[in-house]
Amino acid sequence: MKDDIVSEYLKEQLEQLKDNSEGAVADYIPELAHADPEPLSVAFCTVDGQVYAQGLREGDVDLEFSIQSMSKPFAYALALEEHTLDHVAQFVGMEPSGEAFNELSLDGETKRPMNPMINAGAITVNQLINGEESSVEDRVEKILSFFSELAGRELHIDQPTCDSELQTSDRNLSLAHMLRSYGMIQDTAHDAVDSYVQQCSIMVTVSDLSKMAATLANGGTHPVTGKRVCSNEVALQVQSVMASAGMYNGAGRWMASVGLPAKSGVSGGIIGTLPGRLGIAAFSPKLNENGNSVRAKKVFQRLNKHMGLHLMATEKRGRVAVRSITTVEDEKADKGITTVIRLQGDIDFNAAEKIWRAIREHEFESNSVILDLDKVDEINSVGGRMIREFRDRMIAAGMDLTVVDSDGVLAQ
Ligand code: GLN
C-alpha cells in the first residue's frame, strides 16, 4: 500500500480553508506587509521522526518565512540551557500577562517582564544568551546555531526582514529603554532590539517548525537527528509557559478550544506541541486582531476536532494491564500450585496501581507466583518503580516469586 492517509487528510483540511480570506497581513513590519497573503501549509512531526507536510498550492509547503515570535519559546529554552531556571526567573517571570504581545507587562514589584512569550520578556531572555558581555554578533550566532539544531538543518537570517523591522521598532525600543532603566537588560536599547529582531528574522519552513516543536514534545531529543538539544526539564518548562502564555491575550480561549501549548508569530505561523506525541506547525500570513494567523488557527481547530489532540481530553485508556491470573499445577511448587499473573500493554502509574490492587485482592492458593511480563510493551519510570517495589514486597512477605521478562522491559 502506497497510500499516505495522513498526507491526504492534511491536504483535505487545507482545501476546506481555501476560500477563507479573513484577516490582514501584518503591516507594521514593511517586509511582512509585502508578503503574498495566499500561502497555506501544515506540517506534523511525530516524536519518532515521521514528518508529514502539505501545502494548499504548489510551492506553499517549501516556502520560507521569518520565525518572528515563534522564536520566543526556543530562545527561552536556550537561556534555560545556558543558565538555571532560578537564574532566568530573576529576569523574567512565568505568569500569563493577559495583554497584547507588545505591551510592557512588568511585575509591579520586581519589574520583571511577566513571561518570556511577550516582547518585553523575549527581549530580556535574548539578552541572557551567551552572557552579559556578549557582542550582538556572537549572541545571534549562538541563537542561529541552536535553532539550526532544532530544525535539523542550517538556517539563516533574512537581512531585509531584519532591516525593515529595525526601521519601525519604536515600540520595541521603548520597551528596551524601560527594561534597561529597571536593570533587566545591560545592552543599549538599540543593541538589545537589534539582537532580538535578528532572532525574529531567522527563516524557517513549516516542516522546520514542526521538528522544532516536536523536539520540545519529545523532551528535548530531536526526533529526526536523535540529538539531545535541550534537557527534559527545559522542554517541560518551555511547554508549560507556552500553554499559559503562548497565545497572549487569547491564551485562555486557545487552551479551551484547541488545548495545546502553542506559540504564534506575526509572519502567520502557529506552532503547537502535544507532549510525548507530536510537533505541529501551520502557516498562512493573514492575521486576526490578536495578531494570530486566521487560517493557521483554523487548521489547528480542525485537527483538534478530528484527531482528539486536546491535552485535557479524557480518552479511555487502552487495555487492562492484568491480562489474567491463573493457577497451574507444579509439583515442585509450594502445595503443588503456582499462580501465574500475566501483565500486558504499557505500564504507567495508573496501570501499575491497578496491578497492585489486583494482586492485593487476590486470594493466593500457595506461595509460588510467576509474574509474566512477556506481553508488556513498555514500562515507564514510575510504572517500573512500582512494579519493582511490589516484587520486592512480595518476596519480603515470603512469596516464591519468579519474574518472566524475556525482553527485559523491567529495567533494574
Ligand atoms: N518581531 C515581532 C515584534 O517584535 C514579533 C512579534 C510577533 O510575532 N508577535 O514585534
TrEMBL record:
<feature type="binding site">
    <location>
        <position position="69"/>
    </location>
    <ligand>
        <name>substrate</name>
    </ligand>
</feature>
<dbReference type="InterPro" id="IPR002645">
    <property type="entry name" value="STAS_dom"/>
</dbReference>
<feature type="binding site">
    <location>
        <position position="196"/>
    </location>
    <ligand>
        <name>substrate</name>
    </ligand>
</feature>
<dbReference type="Pfam" id="PF04960">
    <property type="entry name" value="Glutaminase"/>
</dbReference>
<feature type="domain" description="STAS">
    <location>
        <begin position="340"/>
        <end position="412"/>
    </location>
</feature>
<dbReference type="GO" id="GO:0004359">
    <property type="term" value="F:glutaminase activity"/>
</dbReference>
<dbReference type="Pfam" id="PF01740">
    <property type="entry name" value="STAS"/>
</dbReference>
<dbReference type="InterPro" id="IPR015868">
    <property type="entry name" value="Glutaminase"/>
</dbReference>
<dbReference type="InterPro" id="IPR036513">
    <property type="entry name" value="STAS_dom_sf"/>
</dbReference>
<feature type="binding site">
    <location>
        <position position="119"/>
    </location>
    <ligand>
        <name>substrate</name>
    </ligand>
</feature>
<comment type="similarity">
    <text>Belongs to the glutaminase family.</text>
</comment>
<protein>
    <recommendedName>
        <fullName>Glutaminase</fullName>
        <ecNumber>3.5.1.2</ecNumber>
    </recommendedName>
</protein>
<keyword id="KW-0007">Acetylation</keyword>
<feature type="binding site">
    <location>
        <position position="165"/>
    </location>
    <ligand>
        <name>substrate</name>
    </ligand>
</feature>
<dbReference type="InterPro" id="IPR012338">
    <property type="entry name" value="Beta-lactam/transpept-like"/>
</dbReference>
<feature type="binding site">
    <location>
        <position position="266"/>
    </location>
    <ligand>
        <name>substrate</name>
    </ligand>
</feature>
<keyword id="KW-0378">Hydrolase</keyword>
<feature type="binding site">
    <location>
        <position position="248"/>
    </location>
    <ligand>
        <name>substrate</name>
    </ligand>
</feature>
<feature type="binding site">
    <location>
        <position position="172"/>
    </location>
    <ligand>
        <name>substrate</name>
    </ligand>
</feature>
<comment type="subunit">
    <text>Homotetramer.</text>
</comment>
